[in-house]
Q: What sequence folds into this?
């Protein structure tokens, strides 16, 4: 049950990169929620490939077909199912990956786990393409949260050493993220694009770090221990290919801090008690404080690079010089930005349904 | 269902810090596994409080009573239940935390979520004391994995800026972690202890970073997407109080790396294809590669500090100068080391049961 | 998460009767299992409507399109997704059911639960049509169990008081169930068809009882308490519309029996200890004994009847004489026979995956 | 994960009949619910053994110790854990059951599944004694439902052919069930007791049928398909040892009925649309109609009988004449009455938490 997530809602993701279709089912959604398909498409377009020089030239419209769960623009209470048909497939590009695993890919583990029966075309079920149905589910949850005043946004906070302005923990500037490239600082964005272009020119790729923030959250979402907000979000975010680190609030830096530096003091504000600062990232004891929730996610460099790499053949047991073909993003992080938003939306909407 | 974890096994943790008892039930364990109670006690002692100058003087023997699931030294197939009775309780220390939340604690969110019905004594169900039953479950899983040649160890890799020798990703030196203080380098340990003592002397606390490694893993454990090894471990580890960051393999650094630097090339070794390096942390596509699995966890500084902090009263809606009383660790990270091992053991044994 | 089932596998059913498509995802299936699509279609045809005079004239080919999870005739380890497009829809037949609930249908509860947002066309997600994707999942599980020597068959044991020869608990005569009408005794089948035709002629419908048996099961499947075989099968079978009773082994009759009549004694046979009789229905303590597993299921009469029935209008709050239009089976039980087999196959394959 | 149940709440049952203790954890319960321990004890006493001549002379006070989750008489939001220590144990009575399975017991399947590691004393985890912690959980849920006006009651509707007055489907006479013996008709109760005494005198046992009803339910509880009320209740009820049949509403009789006889017509009543009759048992499409929910459960005769029975030895592979010793109820059905109420309460409270 690898590709199923959720407590109150049940999200099931299916499909392989170059199979007939990819898609998702989303069960447990209340009836009567409005669905804005135009807005959803705009959200999906942020993830879609082929839009510019720093992403893969594989073009996929990523237009979902809804098969169930929505009637006359509203959820009907039945499971929502949607698919995206795969059109622009070139499975011939991948015929070798069973015998000769591409470094950094799941080819190696898939071969061992599935014994050669795995779908290798385009990475099969391990492909980043599976984040498209995740974005269908997440785009819907994002819409529904917005109706409750809960906003989610993310940006590239670092690519190859270049850093964007970070979100303000007390008041994340979600509306300042640029629509052409997901950063706040135009200058930082320009330098990041240069770094990505340089990597591409070198037949290489580069990783990045994404920061995501959620505002308008009520206090009291999430549960202690294994269903705390960190656990819920991390389980889902780590399901996104290429994620290797997740941190909340002050994150890793807490290992270097003293309690007096880290603790958020309280004050009286708006007729109630509130934290004065937000190093906790909006979560204490797994439960939202009502302050902005924010977290960072590290995305590894795209493993598919044009440079020749050393691999080996399972069948011949000899070293092989491997050059990965196919069309690949030199940096997947920009397209992962809406995916992280989608994951946050799903995890938060699930917790929201548990409480309201 | 906040305190329940697992796919094949079901772990349920219960208890409050100063209630009658804390404990756990562990369902889904096969019959016929041997249980070495002496070894388990040694493992629990590593977490137990009151052992030295840098931990809380609250003394608890942390001796589990097994109520079910074990007969004549072997699991019998029925759910395992164990409790630890709370003896050394001083609930009077905590009477104020409902109205005046302690900064950095879950007091604030518990008050909002549970509306005043929460057990505040010692942090109630949010207390770090709940990691004792986690260690019962984890200590058992660790024993069972050892029988299969799978070893788990952790150490403090950083406290307040002082760093220990890191684990070698290809061959983590688990047997070099010292038993008196969980570091590899005696000198680093001495400096960390000094930092902790200084923090204590200042009425303050300090955070730390723990590195955990697992050796002897077969390739093929874990699943793609939401039940990948990273998702499984992160969900559980984030259930441990004070954890604010989790990273696998090269972790955050991947955001700064190029693909050619990060990808692990393959070679032929021992008659099969194997990775030459291990920046992936032993996981590709959520599935173990057979290389050592390693990850780092950041532990925030103990929020309970002697220094006066600013809080506010829910009832009077006025600022309050708060001095946290009670007995607290100036740095919880050393005692968290076996807890992280326990979490890793549970997550891995769960995945192991799924496959074998 | 109403439409999701399973422990080791995760089955998710979606779709509404007259929506774009119905379908299912099946996660957790091992790689390398062969899929015989021709055999699956034959199984689905047994459930499909429009085949004879006692079923609805709505014709649907019920041909599944597989979107994922199968490559070159074998499962690939990724979730299996399949859809059946709805072609022969007449949604105009159902426009009234929101305001004026059809007696015996879910119209009434759907209106209250979903507040008018439910899809009422053809019963929406409550339609018996949703058993088609259940049969896709079940037909696959049935194939895989057959490879292990585990056979599943069912027959109509009663329709309107006419009873078929029951299965022999020690040796259920699965191969004697007729292919034209699912009974063992041709004479009983002829009388049942007459009863169904008479009900139809009267503008009425009739219920039935199905008996299902499983042979070739290994001993040791299932678990004590809530994941015993009875619990697993009953949860799934009660998810099939129109099921109102489920009994295992001697079933209801146990309430009338003495222990000395009911207990199955043991003997030595084939070099091991085996039960001499099988009143337990192949299950003791929730776990299979290795004897044939058998159970009975009562199917209520199709609620849609041509006769005028008394209903009432939610909006006008006045009584209404209702005549249900549309195309309906006068007895759904014959078509439910493969659905019960499918449910048994899914529950047993799930338990099988847990053990092997 | 055999002994864990629930969607919104997570119930975990542990213990073996003659182990140190039996108990339960109940996670997912909101904070602030009052707990009346005296009332709970009265409920548990209805199940407790040793109260009269037709139950086992083993005396157990069945007094729960609450370890967590309750503070000052209210739930605190943390998991509730409670244990009952086993006092009156005589494990010597059961030493033979590993090699020589008692007919009708789980000895046979336990031996095969657990390979000799199972706890055989008193049936171990398969013992009816495990229904005591189920009654702790169920007794609490029953209290909480009562506060919402939802009442649950059950009675013996049949023992050995003697039938009690059935519940009125429109208005079940819960308050007419007698406290000394759980029947409505004193005469029927007297005859049932005679039947039980006769069975005991013959060294035999007898089965029974329990009818359970729930009143005051809101419409709209439960979900379509696998989380319908029938699925939820049946999964839990089949987890109770000795249950072999479960039917809802008109139950098995639906197999003999016509649609015009079975369908419940609608009328306008109390300013809304309501069913005129209740053959559906208060459930349509898996969802409560707001009418009384009722179901019947068949309990097999106690397998432990004094009469000599035929068994066989696993080790010697020879037939054995077996006389079961120990203390056993000649009819377990009377003591199972509160257990069925407990199961209904848990399933309904779980569904209730999902909706409110």
A:
């Amino acid at each position: 049950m690898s590709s199923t997530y959720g407590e109150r809602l049940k999200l099931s993701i299916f499909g392989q990169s170059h199979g007939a279709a990819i898609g998702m089912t989303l069960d447990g959604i209340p009836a009567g929620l409005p669905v804005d398909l135009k807005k959803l498409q705009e959200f999906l377009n942020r993830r879609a490939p082929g839009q510019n020089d720093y992403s893969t030239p594989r073009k996929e419209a990523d237009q979902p077909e809804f098969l169930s769960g929505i009637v006359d623009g509203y959820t009907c209470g039945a499971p929502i199912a949607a698919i995206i048909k795969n059109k622009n497939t070139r499975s011939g590009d991948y015929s070798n990956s069973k015998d000769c695993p591409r470094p950094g890919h799941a080819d190696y583990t898939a071969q061992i786990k599935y014994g050669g029966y795995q779908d290798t075309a385009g990475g099969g079920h391990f492909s980043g393409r599976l984040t498209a149905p995740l974005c269908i589910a997440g785009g819907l949850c994002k819409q529904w949260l917005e109706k409750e005043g809960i906003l989610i946004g993310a940006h590239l906070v670092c690519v190859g050493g270049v850093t964007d302005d970070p979100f303000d923990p007390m008041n994340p500037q979600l509306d300042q993220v640029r629509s052409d490239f997901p950063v706040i600082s135009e200058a930082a964005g320009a330098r990041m694009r240069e770094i990505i272009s340089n990597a591409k020119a070198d037949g290489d790729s580069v990783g990045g770090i994404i920061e995501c923030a959620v505002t308008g959250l009520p206090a009291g979402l999430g549960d202690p221990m294994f269903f705390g907000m960190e656990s819920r979000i991390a389980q889902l975010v780590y399901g996104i290919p290429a994620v290797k680190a997740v941190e909340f609030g002050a994150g890793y830096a807490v290992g270097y801090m003293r309690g007096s530096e880290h603790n958020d003091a309280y004050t009286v504000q708006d007729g109630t008690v509130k934290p004065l600062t937000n190093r906790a990232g909006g979560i204490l004891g797994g439960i939202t404080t009502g302050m902005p929730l924010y977290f960072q996610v590290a995305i590894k460099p795209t493993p598919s690079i044009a440079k020749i790499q050393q691999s080996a053949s399972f069948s011949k047991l000899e070293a092989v010089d491997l050059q990965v073909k196919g069309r690949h993003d030199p940096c997947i992080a920009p397209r992962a930005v809406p995916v992280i938003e989608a994951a946050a939306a799903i995890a938060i909407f699930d917790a929201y349904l548990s409480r309201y």
Remarks:
- The first helix of chain C runs from residue 37 to 47.
- The mean pLDDT of chain C is 93.
- Residues 4-353 of chain C form a domain with the Chorismate synthase, AroC fold fold (CATH 3.60.150.10).
- Chain C has one domain: 4-353.
